[in-house]
Write a structure and sequence with these properties.
mainly alpha, 2 helices, 38% helix, flat
Length: 80
């Protein structure tokens, strides 16, 4: 009986807090940012690193076509 009373009190407090929140946000006229609307994000990223000379020589081109080498184990769970 005591455990049920404590749970009932907690539920009543949560419902009351939710009701107060809804009343405060919906009935008082403050409806802006109610659902967490998205804000404009600043997108001015510094991209000069892509055209920097010291990083320009990092490209390595692989000779094509790539030849298939030796296969591994057929069953990866098989012991050696």
């Amino acid at each position: 009986m005591k455990k049920r009373a404590i749970i009932l009190i907690i539920i009543v407090v949560l419902v009351a807090a939710g009701g107060y929140f809804l009343y405060y946000k919906l009935m008082s006229g403050e409806t802006e940012n109610l659902l967490g609307t998205a804000k404009t994000i600043e997108t001015n990223f510094d991209t000069k690193i892509f055209s920097d000379e010291k990083f320009g020589g990092l490209k390595q081109f692989v000779a094509l076509p790539i030849e298939v080498g030796q296969k591994g184990k057929i069953n990866p769970f098989m012991k050696f």
